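Our platform keeps sequence and structure together, in a single record for each protein. Because each token names a local backbone shape, the row as a whole describes the fold. One such record is reproduced below, unchanged from the form in which we store it:
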Amino acid sequence: MRQSRVSRGAALARLALRIGGRYVARSPRLLFASVERRTELRHDLALRSADEVAEELGSMKGVLMKLGQMASYIYEDMPLTFRAAMSRLQHRAPPMTAALASSVIADELGDVPERVFAQWDPLPFAAASIGQVHRAITRDGRAVAVKVQYPGIARSITSDLRNVGLLRRILSAAFPGLDVRSLVDELGERLQEEVDYVREAESQEMFARYYEGHPVIRVPHVLPELSTARVLTSELVSGASFDELLEWSQEERDLAAETIHRFVFRSLYRLHAFNGDPHPGNYLFHGGGRVTFLDFGLTKQFTDEDLAPLIDAVRFLVFEKDFEAFRAALERAGFLRAGAPVPTEVVVDRFGQFYGTVLQDAPMTITPAYASAIVRRFFDARGPLAPYSDVPRAYVIMQRINLGLYAVLGMLNATANWRRIAEEIWPFRNGPPSTPIGEAEARWEAGSLSKQTQKVVKN
């Protein structure tokens, strides 16, 4: 894996020159071709370029690959050829060799994997931007997933961050209209946190304990005795991929979407934490709305003070229709500069779109076009509020989650009464169950509270 700034920067420069040169070489053929042939040539050209970008980003890992993953599912307006190629990065990135993975296990766990585990599969079944995952059987017979970090990935991330100028130019050409500056900067900072598997293990176990016994949400438990800063071992879970889910009935897709929605907002409002990497490769589906959530390397925890202005914003906009109070909540959170010389109706129009799924107490279908409009609005640097709005540091990950959630639900064309589901979870509403999943979740929550009470009494 390339690690130095010079080598990784040179690879990006060569990639840009190859793609640019290919278009120049083909231009005479495009000029004199028929309309049908011209379309065919352009499609072939875009596909070859996209494949090349995907291959290059996959081999380089780190920030570069992560950005390709994210763009593949949140940016609906990206050319379909690029979206298809980039989507390969979600779960089929080029892996490291079996010998290299074995050496990491030996360094971290004290021996080669064939002796640490009763059984070890040297071929990874998933490979992503920070590490790859192998199946194994522990000495006591438990099936596990072992995530092995790519050697030198921290240095590679640092190198990528120093090459942001060239990286932005290439990605701007690949994804026209996308504000890649914000994405690159945010992803770079967050990725430096993700390389610490000890931190990820603590986060994953926090979610696993909280959702223990939940009717539709599952988070695999971590095996701490087989986990280190560069190796993370957790329960092995099998299920259908997101691509397979897309082939299921719309009813099944709606149920899965409801579970994903509940997981995101229950985690925020009840657990006060966010799993910050909501891309399709991090879900496994089991039917009936049951979903397993994977990868907790990017987890953000919130305080009551962090959440207070967000809760106020929802309450004032959705229920009380107090638009001045809504504006004041956004100012208090730091999304809008206090005293900005713009009418409040412009503020409501700009920020209200992010609450579009809960403004009406009625079923709503989240389409790819709707999700794309949210992304465009988020990255709009030319609107009247652009000079006066920002994403405060405390909420950067939250905004990424929102974009990812809308993108995933849009790909599913998911329909639900999102308002009723949200009312169950909002702490200032605590509404009654609105769906069968909600009824099952209410029973689980009541049981969890009962167990906690019994534990307090015993102590």
